[in-house]
Amino acid sequence: MSEKETGSDQARPHNARAALDALAEAAKPTFWGHLGCELDHAEPGKAVVSLNVRPEHLNLARIVHGGVLASLLDNAMGLVVILECPGEKTVTTQLNVHYLQSTGIGTIRCEALLIHKSRRTLTMQGRIVDNSGELLAWGSGTFRRVT
Questions:
Q1: pLDDT per residue over 83-109, tens digit each?
Q2: pLDDT tens figures, 103-139
Q3: Which of 15, 78, 83, 135 is most buried (CB neighbours < 10 A)?
Q4: pTM of the full predicted structure?
Q5: Backbone φ and ψ of 98, nearest 5°
Q6: What are residue 121's DSSP bridge partners?
Q7: Helices and strands of the chain, counted as H and E runs
Q8: Where are the beta strands (DSSP E) in the chain?
Q9: Domains of the chain
Q10: Which residues contact 26 (CB under 8 A, 6 or more apart)?
């Protein structure tokens, strides 16, 4: 997770910036890092994550594999959950993906938003766009606190 932007650096408390930096470092050896996700922006209830599509992200039709898009949605929504529930263990309990258009090599971006939070669950929505802003996929997810 490399951090490109986390809102206004002047407005963000130093300890929040340090927490994002620590999270970025911890994510490098995980699936997040293997996939190639990069944090573009984070604020309460929202995160934007980008992915530079590489050949290994493509299927035999030379378009981004649906599993990559699903993983990008899950990672971006999961990041918002992590920021909403610091220090708590959470898991994805449901992920729904609607594939709308295909794309190949280039940069894609996922915006994830918190739409509901209860005592035990968080409900998210996300959308993935290509470089020109075309909607490639959208989805929703439910995450559960387990600690």
A1: 999 989 999 999 999 999 999 999 999
A2: 999 999 999 999 999 999 999 999 999 999 999 999 9
A3: 78
A4: 0.86
A5: -115, 115
A6: 144
A7: 3, 6
A8: 37-43, 46-53, 90-99, 106-117, 121-129, 135-145
A9: 40-145 (3.10.129.10)
A10: none
